[in-house]
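ENTRY TYPE: protein
CONTENTS: sequence, C-alpha cells:
***
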Amino acid sequence: MLRAAAATCRTTSPSPSARAIKYFGSDAIALSSQGESSTSEGYCYEAYNGASRERLPVVFVIQNNGYGISVPTHQQSANTRVSANYRGLRHLEIIDVDGTDFFDCWRGMERALAYVRSGEGPAMVHAECVRIGSHSNSDRHELYRDDAEIEAARARDPLPKLRARLLAEGRFPESVIAALEAENRQAVERAATEGEASADADASKVSTFVVPEPYTGEERPGPADGEKIKLREAINETLHAEFAHNPKAFLWGQDVASKEKGGVFLVTKGLEAAFGPGRVFNAPIAEDYIVGTANGMCRFGDDVRVVIEAAQFADYVWPAMEQVVEMTHEYWRTRGQFSPNVVIRLSSGGYIGGGLYHSQNVEAIMAHLPGCRVVVPAFADDAAGLLRTAIRSRGMTFFLEPKFLYNQPFAQAPRPGAEHAVPFGKARVRRPGRDATIVSWGTPVHWSIRAAQKAAKDGFETEVIDLRTIAPWDFETVAASVKRTGKLAIVHEDHRTQGFGAEVAARVSGELFEWLDAPILRIGAKDIPIGFSRILEREILPQEDDILAALLGLLRY
C-alpha cells in the first residue's frame, strides 16, 4: 500500500512519517514528490540522509524540469541530474527515468517500491521532465527561454507521446482514447463549475481550529514541608512518568540518548535505558530534521506524543524555523483534521556566562506565532506540572527551560503529586501586595521577588505574579491585581524592544487605563547581544538591582 506523506518542497519531509511506519510495523510507504530546485534546500539533504541512515520506507520522486522558476538547473545544482548529488548515501537506491515516458516511469516506480518493500532502505526516482509553459501566471518564460527551446519542450509533451504510442502499438483504438479524453474534459469542466458555484468562506469561523483544546488536569503541589526537588530533576522525573503513562511517547534530539549523558544538562538521563532506543534516541545535528521528524511522526496517530530537544540550546533552533512555522498552522490549515502533538523543549536564556550562542531567549518570537503555546517555568513544581500538561495535550507547545535555574536551590519546590498538572494560561501569585504589581516569568521571577522583599523594608508591599505561560497568558489575574494596586511593572529576560512585555503592557493600557496611577514600566535585557564576559552579561541582562531601582521609582510616582 502506498500512502502519500508529503507532497511539496515547503512541507515536512516524508522521512518522519516513514519512521513511524517502520516503528509501528505498517506496510505503508511514504512518498515525497518535489521539483529538482527544492533539493538545493538543506533540509532535503537532511531528509535523504536521515532516511538512508535509518533505512526508512520512503520513495523520493524528483521531477526535474530544468528550471527553478527562471533559474536553470546548472545554476542550482552541482549535477544537472540532481540524483547524482546523492549517490554517496548508503542504502539509498537511485533510479533515473524519462519523466516524459509513462512506461519508463511505471517501471521505475515498480523498481523503487520493490526495493523499499525489501527493507533495504529508501529509493529516489529522478524523472527528467519538461516544462512546457511558464512557472505561473505571473511568470513570462519567453523572457528567459527562446522559441526553439519552448518548441522542443512542446515536442516532448508526455500526453501526445503516450497517445501516439498506444495507437502505434495497437493497445487501444482511436475511439476508446477519444472517449477517455472527452470524459476527462467533462470531469475537469464539471469540477470547475462546482468550484465556481460553491459558497464563499465563512468569515465568522476564521478563529476556529487555531489551537486544540489542552489537557485539563489538576494542580497537586507537594506539602510545604515535603522533600524538595530541583527544576532539572522535576523535568526528568516527569518525562519518565509520562513515558510510562503513554507507550506511544517518543523523544529525540542531540545527545539525549548517549549512554548516561542524557543531554547537555542531563535532563533526559536514564530515559533511553528505561524505554529503549526505539522511543528515545539521538538525532543528527540537523535542527530542521529534528522538528520535521516530530511533525511527521505525529501523523501516524492522534495518540502519538513526541517530545524533542529541538536544539542543544535555544540559540540553535533557528535552522528549524521553517518547520516550526509549518507546524504552527497545521491544525488551522487542516480544519482540525491533524494536530501536531509535539513538545519542543529548549534550554533557554542566560545568566550562565554562555555568550552569544548559549544565552539567547526566543520566547517573544515563538509567542508571536499563532497555533503554538509557550511556557516558561520558574520553579520545579511548575516545570513538572506544565510539562505533564504539554505532553498530554493535543497541539504544539514550546517548553522553554531557563537553564540557569536547572540546579538552583531557590528554584526548588516540594515534589508534587503524581498527577500534578498546571493549566496553560493560569498565572501564580508568588507574593501578595497592595502598592504595585510585578508581572514576570522564568528566571526574573526570582529577581522580582527579591526586589519586592527589599522594597518592603521601605513600607511598600508589591504583588509578584509569575505568568508561567506567555501563550496563552493570564490577563484576568493580572487585571485583578492592577485594579487593586494601580501600578504595573513587567520584567522579562528577553530584549526589551518587542519583548513579550510589550504585549502585556499594550493590553493592560488598552483595557485598564482608568485604573492606572502611573505609566507602565518594562524592564528587560538591553537591545544588545548577550556578552560572554560576566561583566558584560550582567550589564545587558536585567538584574535584581535594576528591578529594585525601577520598582521604587514606580512606587514613589
Residues 174-197 form the longest helix (24 residues). The two ends are 72 Å apart (CA to CA). The chain has three domains: 2-166, 228-414, 428-555.
